[in-house]
Amino acid sequence: MxxxxxxxxxxGPSLSVIIEGMPAGLVLPLEKINRELxxxxxxxxxxxxxxxxxxxxxxxxxxRHGETLGSPITLVIENRDWKNWEQAMDPxxxxxxxxxxxxxxxxxxxxxxxxxxxxxxxxxxxxxxxASARETATRVAAGAVAKVLLAAFGVELGSWVDQIGGxxxxxxxxxxxxxxxKADQSDTHCPDETVSRKIHTAIDxxxxxxxxxxxxxxxxxxxxxxxxxxxxxxxxRLDMAIAGAMMSIPxxxxxxxxxxxxxxxxxxxxxxDVITYRKGGKNGGFSRxxxxxxxxxxxxxxxxxxxxxxxxxxxxxxxxxxxxxDMQSKRALVAGYERSDVCAxxxxxxxxxxxxxxxxxxxxxxxxxxxSLSEMRANWKTYQRYLDRR
Length: 390
What we know:
Elements: E1 3-7, E2 14-20, H1 30-41, H2 49-52, E3 57-61, E4 63-64, E5 67-68, E6 73-78, H3 112-119, H4 125-131, H5 136-151, E7 156-164, E8 167-168, H6 176-183, H7 193-208, E9 215-222, H8 238-247, E10 252-257, E11 275-277, E12 286-288, E13 296-297, E14 300-301, E15 306-312, E16 323-325, E17 332-334, H9 345-368, H10 373-389
């Protein structure tokens, strides 16, 4: 079964990710992974770190001549900023004569204090280096591998920004593929050009004030078959797995499918999707007139596009820091400051795509199995024929 394990600190030598469970025989162009990494680094409101790093992967296991072998894949992303942090982040020894700041003032909203208490660390850099959103580069790399596998079966993913800083986009209903394509052409990742300009202004204002902004983005997948996930046990439900994956991304505070919280304010007749049938249509001819459920019913995919909305809080590191406590003197002081973004919602949407792709691959393998791509494809075709007979 597909899974990944990441390692590395934000300013350490590199980030690494080991991917297990990929079938053998999948052609995996590294440029597709690097393209996803570049998307994660874009977005209006990103910080200076994005000017330093140019993320690219190096493969050290699991591939030969451009194809997966079925064994664990290891991807390494070098941190170019490491050269500026060698003394502060040396994995082996401490140079007591080296001049670098130790962090004793935890930042509100971060893992600094709770992590320091849990792991008994007096210098909170031991916590924040791993808790940093820099770690999400490994998720995007692993998610890019998952995307290549899904694409082999006609499944595509995309995302777009719905709102930033309370400024809501006026997005049309319809093809998620069109919305995602238009979003990729915008530096706010928002398909609404008028709202995108307003978001620019809001981010500039927040930066000037030393503040940060959060927002909401939608992640979508289309080309799916009905039947991924299960109602039979709570932990096999597709929406449960996806929601957990989204909430694992730093700074995410809410997840909704389809209408989400809006469904709680409407009568059932305005919420549930009417089922239709057309002989010869895809997925056995069964479809929905609407997609208020967001592509999931009873914990199982319907075959309609998945629509997952995710809420991101404003980034916790402020240029005008909030009040905190110095852990040595216990005096009230302002929190420490680390180089950060003003707004990272567009980048978070790309991370959301990666997490969705990996959860879908898990459910795909659960449904179709296969140690090789050819075996998985044969099982998938058998299922397609079964749906056609229904």
